[in-house]
Amino acid sequence: MSKSDEGENASPSDHRIASPRVLPQARAARTAAANSSPDPHPQTGEGSEADSLAELRELSLSAGAYVAGELVQRRPRPDSATLIGSGKVLELKGAVASASADLVIFDHELTPSQQRNLERELDARVIDRTQLILDIFARHARTREGQLQVELAQLKYLLPRLAGRGREMSQLGGGIGTRGPGETQLETDRRKIYRRIRHVEEQLGNVRRIRAQQRQRRESAPIATVALVGYTNAGKSTLFNALTRAGVRESARMFATLDPTLRHIVLPSRREIVLSDTVGFIRNLPHTLVSAFRATLEEVQRASLLLHVADVTSPVAEEQQEQVEAVLRELESQDTPRLLVMNKVDLLPEKKRDALRDSDTVVHVSAAKGAGLDRLLAAIDARILQDPVQRARLRIPQSEGKTLALLDAKSQVLSRAYRDGYVELDVQAAESVLRQVKTFLLRDDR
Q1: What is d(CA 213, CA 40) in angstroms, rounded to the nearest whole number?
Q2: What pLDDT is recorded for position 63?
Q3: Which strands, in side-by-side order, build the sheet including 362-364?
Q4: What one-character DSSP code corresponds to residue 279?
Q5: Fewer Cβ within 10 Å of end Cβ, the chain: N or C?
Q6: Measured distance CA(102)–CA(99) in Å, rounded
Q7: What's the confidence (pLDDT) of residue 162?
Q8: CA–CA distance from 140 to each of 157, 185, 256, 396 (Å)?
Q9: Could you tell me which residues are beta bridge partners of residue 224?
């Protein structure tokens, strides 16, 4: 169920078992819902509402659901008992029955009592957007750290929803396995969940300490960290692979990347940086997820530069960028220097593509086709302040093969001349490299 400026939307979804023959019924239910819910403000919020519903549809597909129908409602204020009101509950109940749906997904956050009331009335399982995202995260977490973070978010989401769940609580859990059979076990269940939360938080604390130690070792060397951030499915992992050849999983599904990946890459100046791929953001990202994934998102907080990857083909690109900025503010990373990377230019018509112009803050690329990556690397190079590049002249004996190999690998050699057993070089290199060869610097460059 989706909430726009005027009210809320609903989306019943058949969970993995629907057959194509329910589609005409689902379409009829959707048409009836649209006809019975006149829009008092037909010009207000329609785009946002449609985008929100389309996003919920993509999330549902990513979770493995089969969408049998959609229902939209606008009302001046939410109903405290059911969110949508008794009349709309009856209409939704008919749509659920006609489509043989076993799952109803609301794009609006439900209170525990609203969720229980709706499930009792609809005779189907009811979840909200937060729980749907948690389910997707649980499916895609591969590392132990990612699994712990998802479990912590699930536990905190579940805790206020214990009362009245009975045996159905086993459908909501994230690796609990110890909940009692019903209402009489409520306090016991809470104690078990609180203990599990403390245990998971302790394990995540160990993860954070190990990550902090690794980061401290990285930061002891003059190597900057650059983090990829952006809306989910903007192409961050494809760009990461194009720059690093890391082979990170790429998928059109939302939240295909949950676990952070770090790789070294070499910039045109021959400096090295660490590139970090991170989880995608989304509108109204649940706070429990931001909190649970703080260990992963610390790479964003510590980054010297953020590459904000956006889908140039998206009709709501600006809104998605604003959602990313909102999450960055929550992470207190709003002041970190950033570069906007407009991805997927290969999908634009040729005229639009030819009209695109890069600037000091925006670079247009196609990660899938490899277009514009040289310009992107040059733009990153210009914004990295750690270990600045300097120009210097050196006079090195030809017998110093190790030093000459170091300069060939770690600097840009602008000119080279051989005189009397020496090699005279004019180079651009990072300060850390020049310190290693300072004995060969010509006097006026020392």
Answers
A1: 57
A2: 83
A3: 261-266, 272-277, 224-230, 305-311, 338-343, 362-364
A4: P
A5: C
A6: 9
A7: 74
A8: 18, 32, 6, 54
A9: 273
pLDDT for 370 beyond 90 = yes
* Segment (H or E) for 392: strand 389-397
Helices (H), 100-166: 112-122, 129-140, 144-158
Cα–Cα distance for residue pair 1/128, rounded to 1 Å: 7
Please determine whether the domains at 9-134 and 222-383 fall in the same fold group of CATH: yes
Question: Class of the 9-134 domain?
Answer: alpha beta
pLDDT, tens only, 236-265: 889 999 999 876 665 555 565 556 678 899
Angstrom CA distances, 90 to 105, 118, 268, stand at 16, 10, 64
Residue at 398: amino acid letter? Q
Q: Where are the beta strands (DSSP E) in 78-209?
A: 103-106, 125-128
Query: Residue 125 has what pLDDT?
Result: 92
Is the distance from CB of 230 to CB of 300 less than 8 angstroms? no
Cα separation, 159 vs 154, in Å, equals 9
Please report the pLDDT score of residue 252 as a whole number.
Answer: 53
**Looking at this protein, which amino acid is placed at residue 388?**
P
Residue 222 in 3-state DSSP? coil
- In this predicted model, what pLDDT tens digit does every residue of 179-199 receive, in sequence order? 334 444 667 778 888 899 999
pTM for this one?
Answer: 0.73
Q: How confident is the model at residue 62 (pLDDT cuts 50, 70, 90)?
A: confident
Strands 224-230 and 305-311: parallel
Residue 315, CB half-sphere, CA atoms under 13 Å: how many? 7
How far is Cα 111 from Cα 262, in angstroms, rounded to an integer? 38
- Please give the biggest Cα pair distance in the chain: 96
What CATH number has the domain spanning 222-383? Answer: 3.40.50.300
Q: Give the tokens for residue 173.
A: 């859990």
CATH 3.30.70 fits 389-445, yes or no: yes
Extents of the domains making up the chain: 9-134, 141-205, 222-383, 389-445
In the block, residue with structure tokens 């670079």: 363
Q: Categorize the per-residue pLDDT at 218 as very low, low, confident or very high, splitting at 50, 70 and 90.
A: low
Q: Go through the chain and tell me how many residues it has.
A: 446
